[in-house]
Specification:
CATH class: Alpha Beta
CATH architecture: 3-Layer(aba) Sandwich
Number of strands: 6
Strand content: 15-25%
Helix content: 40-55%
Shape: globular
Structural class: alpha/beta
Low-confidence stretches: none
CATH topology: Rossmann fold
Length: about 210
């Protein structure tokens, strides 16, 4: 069986969600997975972006590093991991726009049976991290993804993160994720790769049968 392919699609403004995405990628790669990192793009005007310090610079830096996600990326993947900063306790519009673009694949059932997981970063403690993660479960269920939560399947979850997915709190000074946060994210990447491999093997066996 070929290695599994894990697509990590995230939106990040100041780099916190990006850091979690990279840690998840490390975890998946440690399990032999092929990882594709994509950053969702802004669709607001330059004028609006310039009102938030560092937004334009951060977008330019990350857009130079990561291609924009496409439906083809999702179709080619065995697992899809969505990451977003919280926006009023919910998914960011930038990431949601990408998820909404998957309607064609949804109609064809192309994503049914793939592994799916989520992660987030908030500015404040209790700033909506868990509600944001759970909000992403809803479209994943509609797409037919097999949702992969973390539970408390690793000791790292007793120090950071949530049972729904990795998370961090950046505060007002854009504090990067802690090592404890990143440990949860790495575990998430490993777990997603393991589940995706099991699902892919089961699908291949069913096809042969």
């Amino acid at each position: 069986m070929d290695n599994v392919k894990v697509l990590i699609v995230f939106y990040s403004r100041n780099g916190s969600t990006e850091a979690l995405a990279k840690a998840i990628a490390e975890g998946a790669q440690s399990e032999g997975a092929e990882v594709v990192l994509r950053r969702a793009r802004e669709f607001v005007s330059q004028e609006i972006m310039e009102k938030a310090p560092g937004w334009v610079e951060g977008a330019e830096r990350m857009n130079a590093l990561y291609e924009a996600p496409t439906p083809d990326d999702a179709e080619a993947a065995d697992a899809i991991v969505f990451g977003t900063p919280t926006r009023f306790g919910n998914v960011s519009a930038e990431l949601k726009a990408y998820i909404d673009s998957l309607g064609g694949l949804w109609f064809q059932g192309k994503l049914v049976g793939k592994a799916g997981s989520v992660f987030t970063s908030t500015s404040t403690v209790h700033g909506g991290n868990e509600s944001t993660l759970i909000s992403m479960y809803h479209p994943m269920a509609h797409l037919g993804l097999i949702i992969v939560p973390l539970g408390y399947a690793d000791p790292s979850l007793f120090a950071a993160g949530t049972p729904y997915g990795a998370s961090s709190v950046s505060g007002q000074n854009n504090t990067p994720p802690t090592e404890e946060d990143l440990a949860v994210a790495r575990f998430q990447g490993k777990r997603v790769a393991q589940v995706a491999r099991a699902l892919k093997a089961a699908g291949e066996t069913a096809t042969k049968g």
